[in-house]
């Protein structure tokens, strides 16, 4: 595999009972690139992200992150499921930011960020603290270190969630509609932080309905429908001159 590819998903299939949520979905994301996934509700966007970070187990196909097969170990022609410890190790390298703020409610912003590095990466507390403060500063919230999530706006909580993901030094961050639950006036501050992150070279896969963000920040855009990657290509091409009529109809409807 070319070593500038960070994520390679090949024909990923996922069934829920008899319902096929992912139907041979393939995608490649290069190191340092931003890929936005767009598409109607129920098309499998969240399921696709959840398969990448092993919150769901795929039923078919394969995903590599940084050249490493995710969730399985290959032994000749056989695939074996890996242990829970191995799954945790793989998942650690993949940050995730959800639609609903998923901060620990009983911890301050600073404590939320410190938790993973200290508990999981065994970082010394002083170092974790310094890094967490630097990350809070980076997302514009240095003055909110001691605040609990309930004392922060939705936009501020999402920025802490991004800082927390960064605290784990991930290779990749997955965003699942990170601004969909926000009041309209709070959307931009989160998109701005994500844009900064993209400029810093972080590899990101972003499920979003913010086509302006996709146009300005994404390198590639993937349009999903009915569990399939209906169209994948350079952001400007997919958004401005889609080849698929279904992509064109969706983009027109969202605008
Ligand atoms: P999207 O994020 O594009 O809105 P999802 O990936 O959440 O779509 O869901 C794709 C389809 O799979 C939907 O029809 C949804 O109802 C179904 N689905 C998702 N998760 C589950 C689950 N745990 N059990 C059963 N069906 C599910
Ligand atoms: Mg979803």
From TrEMBL:
<dbReference type="GO" id="GO:0015424">
    <property type="term" value="F:ABC-type amino acid transporter activity"/>
</dbReference>
<dbReference type="GO" id="GO:0005524">
    <property type="term" value="F:ATP binding"/>
</dbReference>
<keyword id="KW-0067">ATP-binding</keyword>
<dbReference type="Pfam" id="PF00005">
    <property type="entry name" value="ABC_tran"/>
</dbReference>
<protein>
    <submittedName>
        <fullName>Ectoine/hydroxyectoine ABC transporter ATP-binding protein EhuA</fullName>
    </submittedName>
</protein>
<dbReference type="InterPro" id="IPR027417">
    <property type="entry name" value="P-loop_NTPase"/>
</dbReference>
<keyword id="KW-0547">Nucleotide-binding</keyword>
<feature type="domain" description="ABC transporter">
    <location>
        <begin position="7"/>
        <end position="251"/>
    </location>
</feature>
<dbReference type="InterPro" id="IPR050086">
    <property type="entry name" value="MetN_ABC_transporter-like"/>
</dbReference>
<dbReference type="GO" id="GO:0016887">
    <property type="term" value="F:ATP hydrolysis activity"/>
</dbReference>
<dbReference type="InterPro" id="IPR003593">
    <property type="entry name" value="AAA+_ATPase"/>
</dbReference>
<dbReference type="InterPro" id="IPR017871">
    <property type="entry name" value="ABC_transporter-like_CS"/>
</dbReference>
<keyword id="KW-0813">Transport</keyword>
<dbReference type="InterPro" id="IPR030679">
    <property type="entry name" value="ABC_ATPase_HisP-typ"/>
</dbReference>
<comment type="similarity">
    <text>Belongs to the ABC transporter superfamily.</text>
</comment>
<dbReference type="InterPro" id="IPR003439">
    <property type="entry name" value="ABC_transporter-like_ATP-bd"/>
</dbReference>
